[in-house]
Design brief:
The chain is mainly β. The protein has 2 helices and 9 strands. A hairpin with a 2-residue loop joins β6 and β7.
Length: about 190
């Protein structure tokens, strides 16, 4: 969490220095975040600016899962014979309290006056608490914490943007926060 706060302070200072004459940008979006085989809803907001001479935006993005993420994997303990008799064994991983902050560059390629594709590349700090529960026939046999995901990762993505009016657009995107965590979302952007 301290890393996320330090990154936010640094990004805010950089943004104020760089965007004095640039067009500002605010984005709000929501969608699905996936960790491994599990997923849940998330929301994110971004503030940034578009460079005057180039079709590139610089963004600070903050996001959080709206619920816990649960993964279940069949461990297959006892083999097929045990499963045929109704015995089951699963390993559940739950990531609770997922939060992230990203500093991104977003080049934009206009295909028409109202439609464009864009890319995302940058650095994301991710924080989540991961716990594991193993069950045989629904009874917890392994219960422990895998610890926290707390680190920085290279992040990338791509999206589509449709401009309805000059200062308002809707967007849909795929964004990989890390090799294990990705998001798909829809949202809107306001240019001011």
């Amino acid at each position: 969490m301290k890393k996320i706060i330090k990154l936010l302070v640094s990004m805010t200072l950089i943004m104020f220095v760089l965007n004095a004459q640039a067009e500002k940008l605010f984005e709000l979006s929501a969608g699905q975040v996936e960790i491994g085989n599990g997923d849940t809803e998330f929301a994110q907001l971004a503030y940034g600016f578009e460079l005057e001479s180039y079709p590139v935006a610089v963004l600070i993005r903050l996001g959080a899962a709206l619920d816990d993420i649960e993964n279940e994997t069949n461990l297959g303990l006892g083999g097929e014979a045990a499963e045929a008799r109704g015995y089951t064994s699963t390993l559940s991983e739950t990531a609770a309290d997922l939060k992230f902050a990203s500093l991104l560059a977003s080049p934009d390629l206009a295909l028409t006056d109202n439609f464009s594709v864009y890319g995302l590349a940058g650095y994301s700090l991710i924080s989540a608490d991961v716990q594991t529960i193993g069950r045989v026939n629904g009874i917890a046999v392994v219960d422990g914490s895998l610890g926290e995901i707390d680190g920085g990762y290279f992040s990338y993505g791509a999206g589509l943007r449709l401009n309805f009016i000059e200062s308002f657009s809707i967007k849909a995107e795929y964004f990989a926060l890390s090799s294990d965590i990705s998001t798909t979302s829809v949202g809107f952007a306001w240019h001011f």
